[in-house]
Amino acid sequence: MKNESHDFSRKINSQCLLMGIDGVTYQALLGDLSVTGALITLAKNTPNGLHVGEMCGLMLGDNPKLSSAKYTGRIVKLDSDSVGISFNHQEHQHQKKKYSPSTS
Q1: pLDDT tens per residue, the chain (104 residues)?
Q2: Which residues sit opposite 25 in a β-bridge?
C-alpha cells in the first residue's frame, strides 16, 4: 500500500504557486502540506490582493503548465509572509427540495 503522508513530506520546502481569486499567481515555498490544508511562505510580502476567507489555488511546482498537483482551498491565515490554506471547505450547501408539480 502506498503511504500518502510520505508523498506529502517529500514536497515540503519546495517551490509552489499560489493563485489568488483575481487570477494573479504568487511565488511561494511550501512549508507544510496535509490532506486538510497547507502553510506556505510567500517569496515577497503578502500582496494586497489576498484576503482571509477567499478561495485560492495552490499548485505544487513553480511552473503552472507543468504542475501536476493542483489544489483548491480557502485562505484561513494570512500574515506578512505566510498563508494558511484549508482544503476542507463547503463551497455550496446542497439542499434537497421536494418537487411538486403544479396543479393548474
Answers
A1: 343 444 454 467 888 999 998 888 889 999 988 889 999 998 776 667 889 999 999 988 777 666 567 889 999 999 888 999 999 865 444 344 444 555 55
A2: 19
Q: Which of 11, 95, 83 has its CA nearest to residue 52?
A: 83
* Structural contact between residues 40 and 57, judged by C-beta atoms closer than 8 angstroms: no
At the topology level of CATH, where does 4-86 sit? Thrombin, subunit H (2.40.10)
Distance between CA 94 and CA 83 in Å, rounded? 29
**Half-sphere exposure (CA, 13 Å, Cβ side) for 8?**
13
Question: Do strands 37-42 and 55-60 pair parallel, antiparallel, or not at all (unpaired)?
Answer: unpaired
